Give the backbone structure.
Amino acid sequence: MKREAQETGSGHSQLTMQVVEYVRGLIQSGDVRPGDRLPPERELARKLNISRSSLRAGIGFLAAMGVLKSRHGAGTFVSDGPPALDASSLSVLGTLHNFLPWQMFEARLVIEANVAALAAERATDEHLAELAEEVAEMYAALADPQEYLIHDVRFHRTVARAAGNPILAALMETITANLYGYRSVTVQHAQDLKESAELHRDIFRAIRSRNPTQARQTMERHLNLARIAQDAERDAQEPTFAAPPSCAPSTSAGRNSPAHRSDSGATPSGPRPRAELRPRTKLPPSNGNRIPEPSTASR
């Protein structure tokens, strides 16, 4: 009889963590190496005496760090892409030095806008195909915020790989892993995922058209809008969570759109009187720094 999943203190089930430890053991022992395919889901689920849904959750948990990668119709493989740097250290530093959400967005803006520009110059046909697939999956997941978030993160990781610089790719792996940890807690409060999907589509089109300037500007606009949207998510999740100041000057495009305004009616660079009355809080603790892989059934 398959065992029931029980939630741990970190919000993940014990069965999920069992799968994580089992797969980690296979990798550490050398039984599987980069590029190798894991045994079929049915075989692994039977071996561990768990359901396939619990198995997928565990595999997705490892995929968050870029350790595993699912290929539609082919199975799950050990990734041979860039690893995340010590993501747990970034979480510890954030706790120690009181990192704020807007500071993380500012760091993303500096790094990721330029990464998008490089991707427009260097992306391969394979990268473009992966980006197109993630955009399509985002549109398909508009009614499922958690699934949408997975494809959102995968899109940004693919852009980073397409930039052709393994150091930048590793940095982005670390940042996205940490961001997922707390965004997964608030994303159920997302208000307009369709607008987000459209911006990801625009970034993809700029990269596909080999236009570095447009790719950079569109990524900047996306990140500024995403910061505002995630402020609202955190407000809905925890009313005392402070809204940070603008992480960077916004582009002119979209400044007057409803999604580009805060709940006080001001644009990102303007004042936010209501939010300033709240005590600021640091980034919430990372949820294991792992972004689940979408289930094979959804792909």
About this structure: Confidence is low (pLDDT under 50) at residues 4-11, 240-289.
